[in-house]
């Protein structure tokens, strides 16, 4: 290339750069120009594909822009719900969560990343959502929602999403929504399955369907039962869909119906819920609840999805991990260690000489027979034998002890459990033991 050709190329390149700079300036200027329809150029470009949907259109997009949604829980349900609500252009999103990101969250809570570990979930979620759509106003609340703060927050939003994993918060949110007149989009998921419905919107509230909470020992969360990320993500996305349908005032909102999702067979089915209960204590004709109560006391369970910390046994029926460690090291002590975790958990890790009899098996009719068989094989004649039961965090082990004590009528068999389970073992005895 000669000098003249090089000069021409430089001139052309400078001209191209000037044109690109002019285009960028024009885009920066024009994107905030509000058209006659009420949307800016940027909004028209960003949301054009959903504006073209007849049920939405420009009017629907403006409704979404002016609306607000509160998401309670920035976990497996809240992350996908928030992602699609922010993507759709909801004007204001509130996100409540008290927790920080842990590595076991990342397979399903996809707003978070490895860099977010030990960071507040609401901070991590807000950062990710802002990168997606900076025009949406996002308010993070790093707190535990309770009776002292729920009403003040809930009343600020048009639609509430229950993306939590515990019964106490479900009752709290339900009552707060009824008292403030807000629709509640409620989702849940466990293993391959999920459920979804809308309460307090042309149909029953949560208390209408469930007037009293279940016994705390019968409730399983994903931390104990496990969950597939894609399954909980499916329900979270559907929560976002129902919220938008409510805002758009569409028919077909999932009120008075419960959607059941089976991920193993990829089946969806709807069941009709009982109608609004005229005798409901919060939304009935003669309601008696006019303020929020102590929901942890009402449900006899903590208002979070962490270790519920059941207390079903006497102190004499329990051993600390250090006591068990000393007990197991004593050569003069004859005992059987029964691990009541699932087979899958037992494959992950186990204490030496433990025998796996899952709690699900023990809780079945005649399920204690296998434990009795193990005891017979370990003892000599009528000698006394200790049966120690362990689980992941010390809850199922207590339930198992109660069952076994009620069915094994032998005074020479001393049945106890290990406080805190293998989590306590890893913390207080063997720090190399895996925690999951």
Automatic annotation (TrEMBL):
Domain Rhodanese span(s) in chain numbering: 331-434
Source taxon at top rank: Eukaryota
Which cellular compartments is it found in? Cytoplasm, Cytosol
Q: Which CDD domains match?
A: ThiF_MoeB_HesA_family (cd00757)
Query: Where is it found, in Gene Ontology cellular component terms?
Result: cytosol
What cofactor is needed? Zn(2+)
Leading EC class = transferase
Which spans of this chain does the record mark as coiled coil?
Answer: 3-30
Q: Which BP terms in the Gene Ontology apply to this protein? A: Mo-molybdopterin cofactor biosynthetic process; protein urmylation; tRNA wobble position uridine thiolation
* Function recorded in the entry: Plays a central role in 2-thiolation of mcm(5)S(2)U at tRNA wobble positions of cytosolic tRNA(Lys), tRNA(Glu) and tRNA(Gln). Acts by mediating the C-terminal thiocarboxylation of the sulfur carrier URM1. Its N-terminus first activates URM1 as acyl-adenylate (-COAMP), then the persulfide sulfur on the catalytic cysteine is transferred to URM1 to form thiocarboxylation (-COSH) of its C-terminus. The reaction probably involves hydrogen sulfide that is generated from the persulfide intermediate and that acts as nucleophile towards URM1. Subsequently, a transient disulfide bond is formed.
**Protein's recorded name:** Adenylyltransferase and sulfurtransferase MOCS3 homolog
